Amino acid sequence: MADPANTPLGKMLLEEITPVVMVLCTPLLEQSCLKNGISFVQMLSPFCDFTNIDVPVRTASDQPYRLRKFKLRLFYSSDIRQPNLEVAKERLKQVITHAGEKIFLASSEPSQVRDLLSRSESEVLPSWFQFFNKELVRTLSFSDHEAFDHPVACLLVVSSKDDAPINRFVDLFNTNKLPSLFNDGAMDPKILKHYLLLHDDQDGPLDKATKLLSEMRNAFGQNDCQIVCINSSQDGQIHHQDNPWAPFKPDALPTENLGGFLNQDDLNEIKDFLLELSSKHIIPYMEQKIRVLNQQVSATRKGFRNQIKNLWWRKGKDDIVDTTNGPVYTFNSIESHIRILGDYAFMLGDYELALSNYRLISTDYKLDKAWKRYAGVQEMMGLTYFMLDQSRKDAEYCMENAFNTYLKLGSTGRQNATRCGLWWVEMLKTRDQIKEAATVYFRICGEDTLHSAVLLEQASFCYLLSKPPMLHKYGFHLVLSGDHYKKCDQIKHAIRTYRSIMFISTLDSGMLYLACMMLLSLICWMSWPVLIS
User: Fold this and answer.
1) Quick check: is 343 in a domain?
2) How far is CA 24 from CA 115, 431, 434, 495, in A?
3) pLDDT tens digit string along 228-281?
4) Which sequence ranges are marked TM in the entry (predicted)?
5) Where in the sequence is the domain holding 418, given as residue range(s)?
6) pLDDT tens for residues 72-90?
7) I need a labelling partner for 295 at 20 to 30 A (CA). Which of 272, 320, 336, 532 fits?
8) Are 183 and 51 in contact (CB under 8 A)?
9) Contact between 406 and 373 (Cβ < 8 Å)
């Protein structure tokens, strides 16, 4: 297999399982950013993905390696919470509807099956499938049963125009305003803090801001404070041809000029700041945290004697509170330490260390009947095996185990099972197990009819791309998908899938009857409003 990091699943993991930075900022600062039609987080987000970073890192066992790829995810503190399910469903519906409108406007004939078979998977699959899958995965952000969405650092940002900026920095990190992950005890509020002073060049010279930076360094530490200048363009007429902010502002109008006051010097300052924040602060902090946690875990849990002691006393722990959903683990419990250690190691690419800790905590969760946490760790074990390019059998066993355990939880685990299934599908496709991937797509179809329509259509493409092509199953799953689209009033998607079925008959005469039936159904369906009016 090719380098796992360069596969579709590897790229997805390097994009979705990355360190989170919690952002706290003042209203005046946001006003300066909004001159460019974007928020502070939107302004920085395009420059948080480092594909050619080169940072030396040491494993917990002191083995050196270099981190070549790294990404930060920035979120306002108010957004660090589990997404509202109804809002998330509406967002996914908009993604599907928009894709249908876009394809329908193009009004091109569906490709002949013979033509599709001569193309690669990336050429055949509609690009919006990948976007839909990512959005579906993101509906599960900030769960308390896994740590990779928990912030590793807090970025406090104040405008140089704010009154008493030092006091504003102190006020920003008010525990009453922190996300529930902190207040509920799931996460330690003592995280890395970095202080940024943002100066709007339209507010005047830099002299005052430079003086404020000196005061900040005296108050918060020499190395933990920085300044960034923005809005150096006075007329706001700068046009950025690549428009890096478009993916982070989906509601922007096509004619809207984003970043009009940000010149190249401003962008370079933002990029340099984020690179320094990553390479000199966040990565070293995570590396040190891994060392400390590994020492604690080794002293209390590793070794035969410690494992026997843990197994013997598993049920008598005082720091675990029993609930109907299984035990609750606070941030200072050894179980939480092991999970954090595994997730931090995964995010820094030390997959061997991650796997050893996931294995360790998996047994604890199973004995405690903490089934959601157990499933989450099994899921990560499967992904870690994949990134290590080891034991296909073990990777698939872990994903199957995680998937089934999530399903046993009922409605509380259904979404997690879907995410697990989507990652599992990509794993199978990377290993050319296309038919098996189609089966998993079918298994993750749940009660949501619209989501099932998209997943069934993706399953149909798996049958088309299998060797040899399974055209009857391709057509059958397109029928199912079109029927689901029709039930959700996604008329244009239904028309598209039914039209695609008709073109199967050009290659396989056995599909002719099915194509005719779909054509008749489509004509009756579209004509009915006219007949009754």
Assistant:
1) yes
2) 52, 43, 45, 47
3) 999 999 888 888 888 899 889 877 676 678 999 999 999 999 999 999 999 999
4) 510-532
5) 301-431
6) 999 999 999 988 888 888 9
7) 320
8) no
9) no
